[in-house]
């Protein structure tokens, strides 16, 4: 939970100058533009795009939202490569499939798979890179390092996305080595680093045999919709206890599918996800109300106050009573400043 809190704080810093409901876009060689993507969008976002080579652009995406409508040209021969750094991201592909990525994961898919899709951020935040590549255009002016390495952009598309299907690669050391230096760079170093590291990525992919990676985190969009409904129900009633079997019966899913799709979307098993949500809600009640510890325990689904306190300490490293005292002291200190 501490790591997630750090990630959220980092994204909030990057979006500090972006008002709610607005997107700050920095298109290639253009003045940054702050605008409202839609009348009902309540999130915040930032997209910076860099043209690295003819036929290849790289975008840094940072969002604090649950969704964002994403549209681009539906190029039959185009390839989009996405790396997730923080949070989780999912989007609907064609043929009724939904793909989700977690921290460190990489996806490759033809650009006609998701030309008019909605990006979904199940944890409410996301940071990552997206590389848009036109293999034919890039091949006509292939950078010397890629030519020396025998890289064929068309072959990467064919190898990783046969029959136009998306491919995902799970988080691994080699991908982390490529992408980690790209985040948090000084502005003066961004373009040179991006240029070098994108070539390193294409060299790496050209040497990989992707057999067996497909469909590890792809699910039917209808199943994902059901899982989101289950999640909303659980989040709305943290005081109520239920079982996976009861949820599976209520929503007409088998238990193994429910557990697998929930973890793919939200990054945790149902029990772990609910425990963290309950403790976050308990922390909020400790900060914002004068309810007793026993009353708060019951509001987040714990009949036994002692068990609640132990779980809270496991998450926050302090007992609820001490957490409330710390928050009260911090609030008074800020008031004096």
From TrEMBL:
Q: Where is the HTH araC/xylS-type domain?
A: 228-326
Query: From which domain of life does this come?
Result: Bacteria
MF terms (GO), sorted A to Z: DNA-binding transcription factor activity; sequence-specific DNA binding
The protein's UniProt keywords, in alphabetical order, are: DNA-binding, Transcription, Transcription regulation
Give the matching Gene3D superfamilies: Homeodomain-like (1.10.10.60)
- One Pfam match, given by its short name, reads HTH_18
Q: Which InterPro entries match?
A: Homeodomain-like_sf, HTH_AraC, HTH_AraC-typ_CS, PchR_regulatory_protein, Tscrpt_reg_AraC-type_HTH
Protein name stated in the entry: AraC family transcriptional regulator
Provide the species name: Evtepia gabavorous
Its taxonomic path starts at: Bacteria, Bacillati, Bacillota, Clostridia, Eubacteriales
């Amino acid at each position: 939970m501490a790591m997630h809190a750090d990630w959220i704080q980092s994204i909030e810093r990057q979006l500090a100058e972006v008002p709610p409901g607005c997107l700050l876009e920095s298109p290639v060689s253009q003045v940054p533009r702050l605008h409202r993507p839609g009348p009902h969008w309540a999130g915040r976002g930032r997209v910076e795009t860099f043209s690295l080579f003819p036929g290849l652009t790289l975008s840094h995406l940072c969002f604090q939202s649950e969704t964002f409508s994403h549209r681009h040209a539906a190029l039959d021969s185009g390839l989009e490569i996405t790396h997730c750094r923080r949070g989780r991201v999912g989007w609907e592909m064609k043929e009724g499939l939904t793909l989700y990525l977690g921290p460190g994961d990489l996806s490759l898919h033809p650009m006609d798979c998701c030309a008019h899709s909605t990006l979904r951020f199940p944890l409410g935040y996301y940071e990552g890179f997206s590389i848009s590549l036109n293999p034919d255009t890039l091949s006509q002016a292939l950078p010397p390092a890629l030519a020396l390495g025998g890289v064929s952009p068309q072959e990467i598309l064919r190898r990783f996305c046969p029959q136009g299907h998306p491919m995902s690669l799970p988080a691994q050391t080699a991908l982390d080595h490529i992408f980690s230096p790209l985040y948090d760079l000084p502005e003066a170093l961004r373009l040179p680093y991006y240029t070098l590291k994108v070539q390193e990525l294409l060299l790496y992919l050209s040497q990989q045999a992707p057999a067996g990676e497909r469909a590890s985190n792809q699910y039917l969009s209808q199943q994902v919709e059901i899982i989101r409904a289950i999640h909303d129900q659980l989040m709305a009633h943290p005081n109520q206890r239920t079982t996976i079997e009861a949820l599976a019966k209520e929503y007409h899913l088998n238990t193994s599918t429910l557990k697998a799709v929930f973890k793919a979307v939200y990054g945790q098993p149902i029990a772990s996800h609910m425990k963290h949500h309950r403790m976050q809600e308990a922390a909020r009640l400790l900060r914002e109300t004068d309810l007793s510890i026993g009353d708060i325990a019951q509001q987040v689904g714990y009949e036994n106050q002692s068990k609640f306190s132990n779980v809270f300490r496991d998450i926050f490293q302090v007992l609820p009573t001490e957490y409330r005292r710390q928050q009260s002291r911090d609030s008074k200190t800020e008031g004096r400043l």
